[in-house]
Specification:
This protein has one domain (10-94). It is built from 2 helices and no strands. It has helices at residues 10-27, 41-95. The chain is rod-shaped and about 90 Å long.
Length: 107
C-alpha cells in the first residue's frame, strides 16, 4: 500500500459525508400510520395495531437517528486518516528528491 499514490479531495469528501448524514437525519422520522376510530371490536383491534405500528415507527426512527453521529464521526476520521497518509506520502516523495532538483543549491 505504501507504493500507491493516494488521491483525495478531503473537502469534497467531507461535504458528501455531511450530505449523507443530513439525508439519514431527514428520513429518521416516524412515518404516518393508519388511524382507527370507532368502538366496534374490529375498530378496537385496528386501533391496537395502529398503536403498535406507531411505537415501532418511533423506535425505528430513534434507532436510525442514534447511528448518525457515530457513523459521521467514523467517516470524518477515515477522511482525516487518508489525508494524513497522503501528506506523509507526499513528504516522503519530496524528501527522496535531491535538494538540487528541488531548487536548492548544495553550496
Amino acid at each position: 500500500m505504501a507504493d500507491r499514490d493516494i488521491k483525495l479531495d478531503a473537502a469534497e469528501t467531507l461535504k458528501e459525508v455531511e450530505a449523507i448524514a443530513e439525508t439519514v437525519r431527514s428520513v429518521a422520522v416516524p412515518g404516518p400510520v393508519p388511524e382507527a376510530a370507532g368502538a366496534t371490536p374490529i375498530d378496537l383491534a385496528l386501533a391496537a395495531v395502529a398503536e403498535a405500528q406507531q411505537a415501532q415507527a418511533n423506535a425505528w426512527a430513534a434507532a436510525l437517528n442514534a447511528t448518525v453521529p457515530e457513523q459521521q464521526a467514523k467517516s470524518i476520521n477515515a477522511v482525516h486518516m487518508l489525508e494524513a497518509t497522503k501528506n506523509r506520502t507526499a513528504q516522503r516523495s519530496l524528501a527522496s528528491i535531491p535538494s538540487r532538483r528541488r531548487g536548492r543549491s548544495n553550496v
